[in-house]
Write a structure and sequence with these properties.
The chain is α+β, with helices and mostly antiparallel strands. Helix content is 43%, strand content 15%. It has 47 helices and 45 strands. The protein is flat and about 115 Å long. About 11% of the residues have low confidence.
Length: 1500
């Protein structure tokens, strides 16, 4: 053997030769597989991002993958490396510090990877790829960091192998995680698929390791002196961790096996399950694919031959009714527990005995069965973290479970054998039970969750929601459900949970077919398949039956269907009304015959006695309503079956119970009284003290059979605790079995028979008679329910002599010992959890902040820009043209004269909400009209702050006031913000907004607020907020005051051109076929004879402006929608003069300052003004907008901005700007006041505290009012409004066939699937399809338009800028070739006026300068100067005479006063403006600038 000196001399500074041990290579892969398997198992059991258990699962998965699959594999794998001739001095020597660091690094990285992947079942490609990349980075990082911990060698790497190892790690990790999550999302119950994911993930680790190891050489630095962590010791640590992981895997397998065995045991019992569905129809399951369930009892005892526990049994009827009104027993559950706890117990096992030694049932047997059902339902509610009253309603069927259930292929000869009578007496009943029931019975409480919060809460509690088709097979096999087509059963449960299977009001013809039940007592009745509370019926188009119609029906009494058709044909020869009634009745009978599709239908006879049935309640009514049914009755043969798949037979007595148990049934109150009379005497008689007969065996029952249950309940136990039922395995005592055997009993699964087949004493438990004591049975002496329960107590010693309990002598030591152990465990857990959590949170924040995003408006256009054709001509887009205003008014007139032209919906108000409602409705296939008194966006919608925002100030209020409504408003607005920017990228954009900080302590406060704002935005966000130092803040916003500035925070919101957006929404609706008319006032509402709205009187205001008479227009519509913003109450009073006002108007003033007051790409917010309000300071259209105020006001058409508000805004702005910048009143180019239509809150003292949410109200006459809200949420408001209108008026939504090509080309459509539902989040507005950020270049290159003008056109009209530019007048200049500016300082051109008239219904000069262009809002005096040119172009296009032009001048100047036009300018004439003879010498703007100063003299 070489000495140390020889080895050092031979290898020092040299590459030491290496080889590999195959055994350790295989062992390392096995270790990696163990860690990967544990990782995937933990990830599979994680159900949500929320919840302590889910977070522990996440951390544990990261530790399993990083610490075992990667770290342990690395050091075990390195043990396979043989250096030299395996001399101990040449063994690898590790550094303790780097070795420990290499353990935690992959754990932290993988924690970030698993956070990126998420916990839901939707497989996200980018999330999985991101997780795979991070996992691969963790694998590579750990390997090379582990190699860096080698002290005695320098590792030499081959770059090719390094790259190859990294690619293997990333690729295999991505494939493994993708396969795992695809299998997980599809609920594929195949062990080999999860095993394949495990092997692939382990292959990523091992493959990377061994490729990297092959490409690594080791240059000796010094020999191993064994002073540090040796290679063998590292292998020992890794092996121990691997063994621990293997134990966890074995424990997981054992746990799953135990669950399966427990589920199999439950399949032999009577069990109550929970079927909880979300709004999309997914069902709640555990991670193992099981439904939550609780055992009711082991066995139901059949006391007589006909006493079968089925849906015909009175006990099931009682459960069915009580589940509709859990309040009737909610207060008695504790008493039921006490009563059950005092029942006699067995001397050996301490279980409840319901059958005495003589084989007789215990007293109140039926009551105890009901109590067990209620206690099981309460336990089920506890599992679901719900109250008993919210646990659900009992489904109207019982499923067979266990091994003796229904065979997969039904016996087709069974009915034939029964019919031929080839079975001995009594055998039919046994065959029926074998066909319908297995060894156990499973009932379901069904419920549908309407709120997303409930779904999130259950997912955080460890449950999952899965599609029915994915888990039906898993549930059926694991719960041993033997029913055929279990998937359809679950689908039926989901429909049952909706509770919509109720008849509609009116008159119906129904089929009432009954037959005697085979092998049992009672009758069965034909009902609709899947709606067991409904007979087969067909509606007759009548609201009710008149007296003469009843007389007609009486003529046909006892006639069968064939004869009835003949008589009805004869009746058509009588009076017209009888002919009509006969035709209606005949059509209904024909439809019912076709629906039932059974020849036996023709044998049914008509009964003249009509039946009143419960039906769907009227809107805004809490009470039920009945409808009328004319019945066709028949007694069917006993062996008849439902030949139609639409029908089935159910017990008649259960059908009767179904009719009394509907929602808000008056029978439920009587049933509640009956329940209290029946149960209260027994429940309240239960004493608090424990029965002495159970004292002797308490200890064994608790401490040996339910040790875990005891530990779980110790923390909640009470010295005076009430006795809870703890047992989970009920059985009949041996002596009672022997006694039962003497009575020829049969015991199979959940059913025990104590009756003799030859006995003539049969109890008719299936009797179809129903009274107010339904379900009450007298106690029987034959049999009972076999149950056993255990009692949990907190006692250590019992005084048998006195029967008293002495408490606390055992519980306190156990608690102290348990608390000490838990305290030590908690301290150890904190040492590990705190740094891991900090690292995980930091890594997660970094990943979230720098996640990839799609920026709306920066993607390429959906439609390519036009190009030159093969013939050399330029192909301009051919956009669909909207109807002219005259054609639209003609369509309005036709609705009042022709019935088929009636509108489905008439919308009053052309603001953001009204046009949004029109667009939503028309894209659902409805016929829609919208009328506006002034112009689109003439009111509040054009006078906003121009932000598309969630509302940081509302979020602050939500947090500090714990106001959930404010929080929901912010969430809704952030979601809508994304839709806003996607559907109209040319009119909206992202805007960074700065929040200056004058105190250091404000930085963490506002940083947390903006980060929370980013977090709420989630995928709807675009950029994360960030902090700027003082110097960076001044660089971004040079106008800021430097004094006291310590830094700034910047967050992102959206900005838009509000009135252009409003007009675009209206024009998009017009393109889709809506009738759009502005300058049309609603003067009255029309009602029919029932007092319901049926239309409106509309007056066209344009003829009067031309000096002509305007006739009123009658517009007929099924639904009238009021979307008039601040004027909401005026329309409501046209409907009802006595209605209460719901709008609290508030005035908001904005001012426009020159653009040099702010950077062109950065806004500013002041959250703490002098009076606590918020003010924005934003760049907009080349100028700067500042506002807003918030003061109560009165409603006027064009409110004037008050000087006090203007000065307040200027003063607040000056506080943030540098002292070198003087904020002058003369710099105000325009100012306006808008009226916010806030929903009034009677408790609020000022309007600022009002929540900006919206409401949809429907009056008794049918006026739909949509009020409140804000610009950002206009689309959601419209969706809610149309949803309510469709539901209220049964409007016929339908898919939109042949949707117009809004893009102007056949290359691409809108991308929205117009299937009759709301799709406005996908419907792009006109101009959006061909827009891109570089479109203006194409416009310049083709038309020769100035750059500023081209940018303005594309950002205002999108791809319609091609049309606008083509309408511009040639200039006859070298450049620009087209586009004559109407205002010298602004990029508005003449083509915009022509386009507004032809394509946007502009009718007045104000329409153009205020809403089609924004000149009046940007500079009131510039608008005045260009007004003659605007009037001239409009007069030419619209054929105005001189009188109309003069009127336009006066009206427009008056309007400009509301835009801040100075008082001296209000009296100027058109001639003065045209000749340029305006006297500006008295204006503030004229006096501000130096006009006569001489140049400074240069000193020599």
């Amino acid at each position: 053997m070489s000495t140390n000196g020889e080895l050092l001399l031979q290898y020092e500074g040299q590459i030491v030769p290496r080889s590999f041990r195959p055994g350790f290579v295989v062992l390392s892969y096995f270790v990696s597989c163990v860690g990967a398997a544990l990782t995937l198992e933990l990830l599979n059991r994680r159900t949500s991002r929320n919840g302590l258990v889910n977070n522990l699962m996440l951390v544990s998965a990261a530790v399993a993958m990083g610490g075992i699959s990667i770290w342990c594999m690395h050091f075990v794998g390195n043990r396979a490396i043989v250096l030299g001739h395996d001399e101990p001095e040449l063994h690898i020597d590790y550094s303790s510090g780097f070795t420990a660091l290499s353990f935690f690094l992959p754990v932290i990285v993988l924690l970030a990877a698993f956070l990126a992947i998420g916990a839901n079942y939707r497989v996200s490609l980018w999330r999985t790829c991101c997780g795979g990349v991070l996992a691969g980075a963790g694998i590579c990082g750990m390997h090379y960091l582990g190699n860096h911990s080698i002290n005695n060698y320098q590792c030499v790497y081959n770059p090719v192998y390094v790259v190859g190892a990294a690619l293997i790690a990333v690729f295999d990790s991505t494939v493994a995680l993708s396969l795992f999550f695809v299998v997980r999302a599809s609920w594929t119950n195949s062990w080999w698929k999860r095993g394949l994911s495990t092997f692939l993930l382990a292959g990523a680790v091992s493959g990377m390791h061994w490729v990297a190891a092959v490409g690594t050489q080791y240059r000796l630095i010094h020999l191993n002196d064994r002073a540090r962590l040796s290679q063998t010791q590292a292998v020992i640590v890794a092996s121990c961790l691997s063994v621990v992981a293997a134990f966890f895997m074995v424990g997981s397998i054992v746990y799953v096996t135990w669950l399966m065995r427990r589920s199999a045991n439950k399949a032999q019992q009577i069990v109550l399950g929970a079927a909880v569905f979300d709004k999309s129809g997914r069902i709640l399951v555990s991670p193992d694919g099981l439904l939550p369930s609780e055992k009711i009892t082991d066995t139901y005892v059949e006391r007589t031959q006909g006493d079968i526990f089925s849906i015909a049994h009175p006990l099931f009827h009682w459960m069915f009714q009580v589940s509709r009104n859990w309040n009737s027993v909610n207060g008695m559950v504790d008493g039921m527990n006490r009563h059950l706890s005092r029942l006699p117990k067995g001397s050996r096992d301490g279980k409840i005995r319901l059958i005495d030694d003589d084989g007789d049932l215990i007293e109140n047997y039926d009551t105890i069965f009901r109590e067990l059902f209620c206690v099981a339902a309460a336990s089920l509610a506890g599992k679901l973290k719900e109250q008993l009253i919210d646990v659900g309603i009992l489904w109207d069927d019982i499923l067979a479970t266990g091994v003796d259930g229904l065979p997969q292929k039904p016996d087709q000869s069974l009915d034939r054998k029964l019919e031929e009578g080839r079975f001995p007496e009594g055998c039919e009943n046994r065959i029926l039970r074998q066909q319908e029931y297995g060894r156990g019975s499973l009932m379901f409480l069904v419920r549908r969750l309407e709120r997303r919060q409930d779904v999130d809460r259950l997912e955080a509690a460890g449950f999952r929601f899965a599609e029915i088709h994915q888990v039906s097979g898993i549930i059926g096999s694991r719960m041993q459900i033997k029913t055929r087509d279990f998937k359809s059963k679950l689908t039926n449960m989901a429909a049952f949970a909706d509770g919509k299977a109720v008849m509609h009001p009116g008159v119906h013809v129904g089929f009432f077919g009954v037959k005697a039940r085979v092998g049992s007592f009672g009758f069965d009745v034909v009902v609709k398949q899947g709606a067991r509370n409904l007979l087969p019926t067909m509606p007759v188009p009548l609201e009710r039956l008149e007296g003469w119609q009843m007389d007609v029906i009486r003529r046909f009494d006892r006639m069968n269907v064939s004869l009835l058709f003949k008589e009805l044909d004869g009746l058509r020869k009588l009076s017209p009304r009888e002919m009509l009634f006969a035709s209606q009745l005949s059509d209904a009978l024909q439809a019912l015959r076709a629906w039932i599709d059974d020849p036996m239908f023709d044998e049914a006879v008509l009964t003249s006695k009509v039946v009143q049935l419960p039906c769907r309640a009227q809107p805004n009514s809490n009470s039920g309503k009945s409808c009328t049914m004319v019945a066709l009755c028949i007694m069917m043969p006993i062996h008849a079956s439902a030949s139609s798949p639409r029908c089935e037979f159910i017990p008649l007595n259960f059908f009767k119970v179904h009719q009394m148990a509907y929602k808000d049934s008056p029978q439920l109150l009587a049933f509640t009284r009956h329940v209290h009379r029946e149960l209260s005497p027994i429940v309240n008689a239960a004493p608090i003290n424990m029965p002495q007969t159970t004292y002797k065996h308490i200890g064994r029952a608790i401490f040996w059979r339910n040790r875990l249950d005891l530990l779980r309940h110790l923390g909640r136990s009470n010295v005076h605790n009430e006795y809870a039922i703890m047992g989970d395995n009920n059985s009949i005592l041996p002596n009672s079995r022997r006694k039962s055997a003497s009575h020829d009993s049969e015991h199979s699964g959940s059913t025990m028979r104590l009756w003799n087949q030859d006995s003539s004493d049969r109890q008719k438990s299936g009797d179809d008679r129903i009274s107010d004591r339904t379900g009450v049975q007298q106690p029987s002496s034959l049999g009972g329910i076999m149950v056993s329960q255990e009692i949990q107590v907190d006692i250590s010693e019992i005084d048998d002599a006195g029967g008293r309990l002495r408490t606390g002598r055992i519980q306190l030591p156990i608690r102290a010992h348990l608390a000490t152990g838990m305290s030590r465990f908690a301290r150890g857990l904190r040492r590990i959890a705190v740094p891991t959590t900090i690292a995980a949170v930091g890594g997660g924040a970094l990943i979230y902040s720098y996640r990839p995003r799609n920026i709306p408006g920066f993607e390429g256009p959906a439609v390519a820009p036009p190009t030159y054709g093969a013939d050399g001509t330029f192909k301009l887009p051919r956009f669909p043209k909207v109807k002219s205003r005259g054609e639209q008014i003609a369509a309005l007139k036709r609705s009042g004269t022709e019935e088929e032209e009636e509108y489905d919906m008439l919308v009053i108000g052309g603001g953001a909400t009204g046009t949004g409602v029109a667009l939503d409705a028309v894209t659902r296939g409805l016929k829609v009209a919208i009328v506006e008194r002034d112009d689109f966006s003439s009111g509040t919608s054009s006078k906003s702050t121009k932000l598309v925002h969630g509302g940081v100030r509302y979020l602050e209020k939500a947090v500090w006031n714990l106001d959930y409504n404010q929080y929901q408003l912010v969430k809704e607005a952030l979601k809508e913000r994304k839709y806003f920017l996607q559907t109209a990228p040319h009119l909206s954009s992202w805007l960074p907004i700065m929040l200056p900080l004058d105190k250091w302590w404000k930085a963490p406060y506002y940083w947390a607020g903006t980060k929370f704002y980013d977090f709420l935005a989630g995928s709807e966000g675009i950029e994360s907020s960030y902090f700027l130092t003082r110097s960076k803040a001044l660089d971004a916003f040079p106008m800021l005051k430097q004094t006291d500035l310590v830094g700034a925070l910047v967050y992102y919101d959206g900005a838009h051109n509000d009135s252009r957006m409003n007009v675009s929404i209206a024009m998009t609706a017009a393109v889709y076929g809506a009738t759009i008319v502005n300058h049309a006032e609603v003067t009255g509402l029309l009602k029919n004879e029932n007092g319901k709205l049926c239309g409106a009187q509309v007056k066209d205001l344009i003829p009067e402006r031309n000096g002509k008479k305007s006739d009123p227009i009658t517009v007929k519509a099924k639904c009238i929608v009021n979307c008039t913003g601040p004027f909401t109450d005026s329309i409501r009073k046209l409907d009802d003069q006595e209605c209460k006002e719901i709008v609290a108007p508030a005035s908001g003033v904005h001012v426009i300052l020159p653009g040099y007051y702010s950077p062109s790409n950065m806004g500013l917010i002041d959250p703490s003004t002098s009076d606590g309000r918020v003010i924005f300071f934003l760049p907009w259209q080349g100028n700067t907008i500042a506002g807003t105020t918030d003061e109560p006001t009165n409603i006027t058409p064009n409110p004037l901005p008050d000087e006090k508000s203007i000065q307040w805004i200027l003063n607040e702005v000056s506080h943030y700007l540098s002292p070198d910048i003087s904020v002058r009143r003369g710099d105000v180019l325009a100012a306006w006041a808008g009226i916010r239509p806030l929903v009034r809150d009677p408790k609020a003292k000022n309007t600022e505290s009002l929540v900006r949410n919206h409401l949809v109200d429907i009056s008794s006459s049918g006026l739909v009012t949509c009020a409140g809200g804000k610009w950002t949420t206009y689309r959601q408001m419209a969706e809610d409004c149309v949803d309510a209108a469709v539901k209220e008026f049964n409007l016929p939504t339908k898919p939109f066939v042949n949707a117009p090509r809004v893009s102007g080309t056949e290359a691409v459509d809108d991308g929205a699937i117009l299937d009759g539902t709301c799709q406005t989040h996908n419907v792009r507005l006109v101009g959006a399809h061909g827009f891109s950020k570089t479109l203006f270049i194409n416009i310049i290159q083709h038309f020769g338009i100035e750059t500023e003008v081209a940018k303005h056109l594309t950002e205002s009209y999108g791809d319609r800028a091609w049309t606008v530019a083509a309408l511009c007048k040639p200039t006859n200049l070298r450049f620009p070739a087209r586009g004559e500016r109407i205002a010298r300082l602004y990029p508005f051109v003449d083509g915009e006026i022509r386009y507004a008239i032809a394509n946007e219904y502009a009718q007045t000069a104000v329409d153009v300068i205020a809403r089609r262009t924004r000149l009046a809002f940007l500079n009131a005096q510039a608008a005045l100067e260009c007004l003659p040119k605007v009037i001239d172009i409009m007069a030419q296009e619209l054929k105005w005479d001189r009188a109309r032009q003069d009127r336009e001048w006066k009206d427009t100047v008056a309007f400009l006063q509301s835009m801040g036009l100075p008082e001296p300018m209000l009296s100027v004439t058109r001639a003065q403006v045209e000749k340029g003879k305006l006297d500006f010498s008295s204006s503030l703007e004229y006096k501000m600038y130096s006009r006569h100063d001489k140049p400074p003299v240069v000193e020599e």
